Amino acid sequence: MPRAAKSRQNTLESVPELPPAVPEKENDNEPVKGLSGDLPTLNYPPPPPPPQKSQTFMATSTVEKPPVTRKVSSPFAWFSRARKATSPSRPTSPRRNTASSLQSLTTNPDSNDDGSHQPTLKDRFHILRLQGESAISADENLALPQGRHGRAGSLQGPTKEDGGQLSPPFTPRANSFSAISSPTTKLPPGTVAGDAAGPSEEQTEVNWDLWQSVVYEGPSAVARTSGDELIRAIANGIPQPIRGVVWQVMAESKNDELEQVYRELVARGTDKEVTQPPAVRRISSTGEKESIASSASSVHSDVSATPQVNGNDSIASPERKRMSKDETAALQKLEKTIRRDLGARTAYSKYIASAGLQDGLFGICKAYALYDEPVGYAQGMNFIAMPLLFNMPEEEAFTLFVRLMSKYNLRSLFTAEMTGLHMHLYLFERLLEDYEPALYCHLRRRCVPPNLYATQWFLTLFAYRFPLQLVLRVYDLVLSEGLGAILKFGIALMQRNAQTLLGMKDMVQLSTHLKERLFDVYIDKSPSATSILESGFFGSTSGSDKEVYRADELVRDACAVVITPETLAAYTSEFEEKSRAERDREIELESLRNENANLSTRVRKLELRTQQSDAEHVDLASSLVRTKVENDSLLDENESLKMQVEELRKMVDKQPQEVEDRLKGEMDKIMARNIEVQDSNRGLEEQVQEMEQELVGTKMMYAQLNAEHDALKQKLRDIQNMLASTDEQK
């Protein structure tokens, strides 16, 4: 009997008894390693002992509800694969190892806000293994913990009651299990709804011991002892219920501190940022706050600062209250951009399981844009995050997303230079040349380079258009092997489509096929019930047109592609050398451009100076011509003046006597006239003397007349006085 089957049988036999305790953790004294370094160990008490039968029956409701039936498309439907659709339902039994009263469902609190009672991945795997091996329903035997739980069975874990006992109350998720429906024969084969019945054959055995070793010991330890078995198990597909747990274990992404950072980043710019009290942070033994390592996600963000925790932090810090308008506007613009890219563009809205995940998807994109500001948000991140949300809560999906960006170097695909994207496209092109040289030459001749169709493969990990059934398998290999798995899937797809592509001659036809119909070669035209069940795991609102794909065949083809590390290293060196040569060439071209620009500027300056010199030369030439003309005219004028001077000199030399004679005659005339004037002046002087004598005589006569006049006036006054006095006497 195989080891897994024997383990399953032993577990089934022991179900009515006390459930097996959680295996003891190795190195219990050592702290758990996470993105932020050492974290305090979370110690959980053992499960509570089973209640007495009498108490159990007393606590059981008097009205027994029928068991919840399972539906083929529900997340845990494949646990019923061993049963036929017509098999009778399991009889109800009292709930064991759970809080048996309805009151306990409300009295048992969830884990604290600080996450101190959150179950570990090991605890969650243990619960999922018990479910998988015993195939008990949600209201039987072992109830699942209440509160948050991951999609497709990634459970958060039990809560803790007073007294240190774990109490795992559970609220069943709607439509978690339902009855298996009958086939729909009217729909075409190869579709999910065309054959909706569950498989009747036994499900492929799950090696729970192997996956438990992976979760408890780590993939590195298992790879050293059972490497081939682990590779085969991953290639066959991680079981869906534990996929979220195994993904986190392989990526080592579980980090409570980073989850708290996620909650703070999501709340930024909302009312929750002001009203929600911050969770209590763990403080190291040295008394300092723990820092959250950003996993080298940015050269500028080696350590992300942890907000300080004070006793009065129930109200947002004043710094956040005083957030500038620019920061608020930038945050609103970021949120608007993210919401515009969500919705139907994520290609997952058709799945029932995607209902309610849009807020989580928005939160992851927003939180990472704020967490890694140099990269920010870019289209394609939402496609990468959505499959994570299908398998785990949004906080854990964020930590795994950060791990993908840092450890798996997805961040280099979204930087401004996109160095990682260019490198992987070059690697894919070189590998395509090695594996399919004819197809490589054909695409090259038709001008269809890899960056025309393969860019989204790396930016979204095939999630931007291709079926979710295959995308999850791609994620399995990516998380175990890194981005090299995308190269394998790409080469496998090109190999399977080689003949079809070689028959196409048109560039548009080639591009359309490479972008949209590349997975059609893996469509299962006559799918088995097992493949239908696996394909319809999440359910679909448009199942009638959802194809069923041979996922195992795709993974086998991808695993068959052998890409040695030496080959990748050689091609990476080629790319680096080519990039270095291109950078050197660009630097040289840039220097030549700068030098050319400088020389052009210098030439323009010299041309301007030449033009100015030419203009000055023309002006000088014109001035010189004008000066010469003026000189010629002045020479002529000078000659004429010289001739005139010469003539005048001759005239002066000839007429000195005439001048003297004329001057003498004039002088004689003047002398004669002068004598006449003197005689006339003497006569006038004599007349003046005579007139002066007459004037003196006249003045003397005038004075005598004035004296006589005064005497007469005096006599007149005397007479008047006498007359006046006489009149008075009368």
From TrEMBL:
GO molecular function terms attached to this record: GTPase activator activity; small GTPase binding
Biased composition (Basic and acidic residues): 114-126
Domain Rab-GAP TBC: 237-482
Coiled coil: 582-729
GO cellular component: cytoplasm
Ranges of biased composition (kind: Polar residues): 53-63, 86-110, 173-185, 306-315
Primary location group: cytoplasm
Name of the protein in question: GTPase-activating protein GYP5
Organism: Aureobasidium melanogenum (strain CBS 110374) (Aureobasidium pullulans var. melanogenum)
